[in-house]
Amino acid sequence: MDYRQLGQSGLRVSRLGIGCMSYGSPAWRPWVLDETAARPFFVRALDAGINFFDTADMYSLGVSEEVTGRLLRELGRRDELVIATKVNFPMGAGPDTPNMGGLSRKHILQGCDASLRRLGVEAIDLYQIHRFDRDVPVDETLEALHDLVRAGKVRYIGASSGSAWRMARALSISERRGWARFISMQNHYNLLYREEEREMIPLCLDQGVGLIPWSPLARGVLTRPRPSDADVRSGGTARAASDDYSPRLYDQPSDWDVVAAVERVAAGRGRPMAQIALAWLLSRPGVVAPIVGATTLSHLDSAIAALSVTLTAEECAALEAPYQPHPVKGFTV
Q: How far apart are CA 116 and CA 118, in angstroms?
């Protein structure tokens, strides 16, 4: 396994991160694996040298953090593990829980304490804002995150999806105030969605912020040929069939031209489509560790195998050629 520094920090992470949204409680989403079913995935990932595991408080409403924490404490070496989680999305659904979400100082501090308890760790290696919060002054958010770093509860901070101008403003404020600075951006980036190349990625490259993209395989759309009904949910998996978010992310007719390009390159290489799509992303400037979700061991094995695939310039050009501009997807501007 190859390890890279995350941005300009000294933190070194494996070239793949495991997305732990897939592990927690099936009551939250029908495709989520419970702890017993999740165990082999953690064993396989750790055996492959993967040290980077990403979850969020809202995944399975906290159960994902509990499962992730228990399995990593049992199976891994804590000193070498990089455990990441996120804060922002509501942890309470009722009108009487107004402070159970967002990026206020109150919610960030109490959210961090709750995540530490669920994970069963003394500090979170990478604590990320799960989108920006337009209703809270960014100074309030950044100072709260800085205070968590100074208190030893958080080691590094990162962000996940948002407008480049918001990220630039946050980095500027942190630098001006001498506060802890975002070292990573977990953004929506794959062959079907490359709008991040316009502003966010150039900003991150200039500012030394590492990229750890979510949905590197477009929620599975890049792993299989176009279905006969051209419905992204017709993927033959429980997640694809019940996923209402994919149609909102990948709804452009030209997306299927990109899928067809991946299929052609994969056929020429004798490799699965997933490995070609992931190899392309791994080759992009600034990309440190795509966050890969897996609910079958063969999917995880395929992601690991993609690390050994090096595409030619001609293959990359063929994969990129069909792309057409998209509206912003994955966050609110």
A: 6
d(CA 304, CA 215): 16
Q: What are the distances in angstroms from CA 88 to CA 46, 159, 208, 304?
A: 29, 11, 24, 30
pLDDT reported for residue 245 = 86
Tokens in use for 202?
């150039």
HEC states along the chain?
CCEEECCCCCCEEECCEEEHHHECCCCCCCCCECHHHHHHHHHHHHHCCCCEEECCCCHHHHHHHHHHHHHHHHHCCHHHCEEEEEECCCCCCCCCCCCCCCCCHHHHHHHHHHHHHHHCCCCEEEEEEECCCCCCCHHHHHHHHHHHHHCCCEEEEEEECCCHHHHHHHHHHHHHHCCCCEEEECCECECCECHHHCCHHHHHHHHCCEECCECCCHHHHHHCCCCCCCCCCCCCCHHHHHCCCHHHHCCCCCHHHHHHHHHHHHHHHCCCHHHHHHHHHHCCCCECCCEECCCCHHHHHHHHHHCCCCCCHHHHHHHHCCCCCCCCCCCCC
Residue-level pLDDT at 236: 65
Cα(259)–Cα(220) distance, rounded to whole angstroms?
Answer: 11
Q: What is the pLDDT of residue 96?
A: 86
What values do phi and psi take at 260, rounded to 5? -65, -35
**Averaged pLDDT in 10-residue chunks for the chain of 333 residues:** 97 98 96 98 98 98 98 97 97 86 97 98 98 97 98 98 98 98 98 98 98 96 89 77 86 96 98 98 98 96 98 98 96 87
Q: Among this protein's residues, is 59 annotated catalytic? A: yes
Catalytic position from the list 3, 23, 59, 193: 59
277 touches 222 (CB < 8 A): yes
The predicted model scores a pTM of: 0.96
- Residue 291 confidence (pLDDT): 98
146, 183 contact by CB (below 8 A): no
Q: What is the pLDDT of residue 301?
A: 98
